[in-house]
């Protein structure tokens, strides 16, 4: 029995396989039995007249990476990656016909070893994020912000910007600690606390609020400036109203400076200082000029008091005039009467002077006279330095305690007192009809 023969298999159609192109710097096309042999590049088909008929070939672009050149040197060829792109024209026929074929996922080249793998995805993402931050950040602006923040921290916490020391002009009646307590400021406080108060104070660096508090507590201050002095110093620049004269008002002594401004009051007269008497105040307030019933006379008395101080300061040797002065009193228009109690004498000396004269020179001369004691045995008496001639007139007290002339005057001539007879008063003739 003849077995039926199976029909011959249908002829298998030969599939056109796309030759595998190994990526490299110069792509190679394998063809023929010997893969190592180079396939000849087919001739380019020209179009136009005289061109041979044939299929049109179009170039295919391959992307070749140039970033991994270091590894390419080790392996003898370059890697392929989608970073840097280079166009390579392939004119093989199968490649031209592969347009309709679906794209396949690129396989990892066989020459990449495990040691060539990139770092983990987490590290690469962090590196990319850090590079992106550095690329997008404005480094000069960031450095400026950091410097500003550092400066503000130092400015707020550094001891050099806090009150650590007190300084200022030397005061006669007040201490710097008293001024600090009255100002409302405190040691260790930042200098910006209570700084300014007005535009002028802000521009001049003063503490206007602290100045007002101090002047309210001590109105006898003539001027005051409080400001910060680097480093860490609170500076008080003040001018006091020095009490120069003491006005006796019902056994209360009102102190006034040389400008007639009230500085305070005392219940007792300080030892060694004279009192002004014979002037009644009308209005008086500390820190303001006093108002009296004889303002011009008070100004003259204060001027006399200032001249006494200047004379003692200029000639400190010998007997000082100010401790010997007991009373200053106005005795008429521009005439001031001073009562002295010379040392070593129980009798007083009264001196009449004028505020229009050069008082300091007159008192320097009087100081020499008292030091020489030429009038010691002639007291009590009145010394007139008001006019152009210096005359001393002794007097004595009668039984009623009234002053009587001794009939003998002394005139200052050639640096001594010369006796001078007093001319008898002429009787006025009777009027005859």
Describe the structure.
This protein is of the alpha+beta class. Helices cover 25% and strands 20% of the residues. The protein has ten helices and 17 strands. Strands 7, 10, 11, 12, 13, 14, 15, 16 and 17 form a nine-stranded mixed beta sheet that branches. Strands 1-3-2 form a three-stranded mixed beta sheet, covered by helices on one side. The longest helix is centred in the last third of the chain and has 20 residues, at 295-314. The protein starts with 68 loop residues before the first helix and ends in a 12-residue tail after the last strand. Residues 77-100 and 425-433 have low confidence and may be disordered.
Tell the overall outline. rod-shaped
Low-confidence stretches: 77-100, 425-433
Strand content: 15-25%
What is the H/E order? Answer: HHHHEHHHEEEEEEEEHHEEEHEEEEE
Overall pLDDT: 76
Number of helices: 10
Distance linking N and C termini: 218 Å
The radius of gyration over CA amounts to: 59 Å
Give the helix level as a range of percent. 25-40%
Class of secondary structure makeup? alpha+beta
**Total number of β-strand segments?**
17
